[in-house]
């Protein structure tokens, strides 16, 4: 992302509109970037639950948070079967994780279930880039990105998968419709970096 992921996540935190004492569920929280930012907003009276289905990734994120002096509830869980009560959270977030979920519709319904009425779902995910940039974006994704992955991380296959999974993920309008079908009465779409990434903000009915 050339460092842009920090800007995208900061924008997500800003639009979450959190207040002191709010409860937040961070799904596919991985490295804990969003969880840490949310924790600052909700204060000691609030709660941020840091989750991921990947135990190793979650452990890395938890250790990073602890190094920063932030201790949060950390739970290994599947977004399609969230182990939390109905109408518990004020905000649910998932950044760059929905794309990898097998049954996105089920996961979105679960996210809606655990949200309070008028609660917010923030979905930050790679999306469909603006038409004028499609050709150069495809060239970068399938030709340059895997080579960078091989050079920097010695792992071209993961970066090839990244490019392919982005193309298979629902576009902005399709994801909006999926969120509405899951129970979100109002969904705003914020295209970031010409649609390379989109932030979908859903309000529970």
How does this model look, in words?
This protein has about 200 residues and is α/β, with parallel strands linked by helices. Helix content is about 45%, strand content about 25%. A seven-stranded mixed β-sheet has the order 3-2-1-4-5-7-6, sandwiched between helices. Strand 6 and strand 7 form a beta hairpin. Helix 5 runs antiparallel to helix 6 (about 155-170). The longest helix is centred in the last third of the chain and has 20 residues, at about 135-155. The N and C termini lie far apart (about 35 Å).
Quick synopsis:
The protein has 205 residues and is α/β, with parallel strands linked by helices. It contains 7 helices and 7 strands, in the order H-E-H-E-H-E-E-H-E-H-H-H-E-E.
Count of runs of 4 or more consecutive helical residues: 7
Strand order of the largest sheet: 3-2-1-4-5-7-6
Shape: globular
User: How many runs of DSSP E, i.e. beta strands?
Assistant: 7
Fraction of residues in β-strands: 15-25%
Helicity range: 40-55%
| CA distance, first residue to last residue | 34 Å
Helix-strand makeup class: alpha/beta
SSE succession:
HEHEHEEHEHHHEE
Largest sheet: 7 strands, mixed
Mean pLDDT: 92
Q: Which radius of gyration do the C-alpha atoms yield?
A: 17 Å
| Low-confidence runs | none
